[in-house]
UniProtKB/TrEMBL annotation:
Residues 29-216 form the N-acetyltransferase domain. InterPro entries: Acyl_CoA_acyltransferase (IPR016181), GNAT_dom (IPR000182), N-acetyltransferase (IPR051531). It comes from Ceratocystis fimbriata CBS 114723. GO terms for molecular function: acyltransferase activity, transferring groups other than amino-acyl groups. This is N-acetyltransferase domain-containing protein. Pfam families: Acetyltransf_3. Coiled coil: none annotated. It comes from the Eukaryota. PROSITE patterns: GNAT. The lineage of its organism: Eukaryota, Fungi, Dikarya, Ascomycota, Pezizomycotina.
């Protein structure tokens, strides 16, 4: 991994407080800013093995305290630079999952996209509906010029991407998603929205080695 310092744009900080962020309504879902009051829902999500096998931790939360530690990454004071939603069904109010940007500077130095859905709601097209809504809001956020340290393989200038961009002073903004190669459904979904593979690498944890794809979505606001 080669890190370089580049100039780019990112959503302007501080973000709106969660209580001031607009609620998003889609055909079937309601997306609300995630707050501490949603910890019971998120704990239920993070104790489903089928869900957590694809997470960065790779295992379910042992208790509510573990869920709270995870949530701390995007709750105050970090909510000035994270943009996360909890998702509910419009017709029944049932909790569906979470989605959003939970780290402004992720593994590759860029903002990271993450999403998890309760297993009961898989295969219904909800993930597509959620990501479509989130990405629209994400690219509409006000921007600021910033200097950041990122992995050179994720750098984009125009149509070019990767190591060739290491000497560039200014690069295009991207949104990153880290995906286990075996998680075929997520890879397929992200490709549907224009994400492309920037690099493939290995990570380890819980006695296992994971093959990961770093997928990036280019900033196409000016295209």
């Amino acid at each position: 991994m080669s890190r370089i310092i580049v100039n780019t744009t990112l959503p302007k900080r501080p973000y709106q407080t969660p209580t001031d962020r607009p609620i998003i309504t889609t055909d079937r879902l309601i997306l609300k800013a995630s707050t501490a009051e949603h910890e019971a829902h998120i704990h239920a999500l993070r104790t489903q093995e089928e869900v957590m096998q694809w997470s960065s931790s790779g295992h379910v939360d042992a208790d509510l305290a573990a869920t709270r530690r995870s949530m701390a990454a995007w709750l105050a004071p970090h909510d000035i630079e994270t943009w996360n939603y909890v998702v509910f069904k419009r017709d029944t109010g049932a909790f569906v999952g979470t989605a959003g940007n939970y780290r402004r500077a992720g593994t590759q130095g860029w903002p990271e996209l993450g999403y998890m859905l309760m297993k009961e709601h898989w295969g219904m097209g909800y993930a597509t509906e959620i990501l479509r809504a989130f990405l629209q809001v994400w690219w509409e956020l006000p921007r600021e010029k910033v200097e950041v340290e990122v992995d050179s393989e994720t750098c984009v200038v125009g149509t070019q991407m990767g190591e060739a961009m290491a000497g560039e002073a200014v690069v295009d903004e991207v949104l990153v998603a880290e995906v286990d190669i075996l998680n075929k459904q997520s890879v397929k979904l992200l490709r549907k929205f224009g994400f492309e593979v920037a690099k493939i690498w290995q990570d380890s944890g819980n006695g296992k080695v994971y093959d990961l794809e770093t997928m990036i979505l280019r900033d196409k606001r000016g295209v």
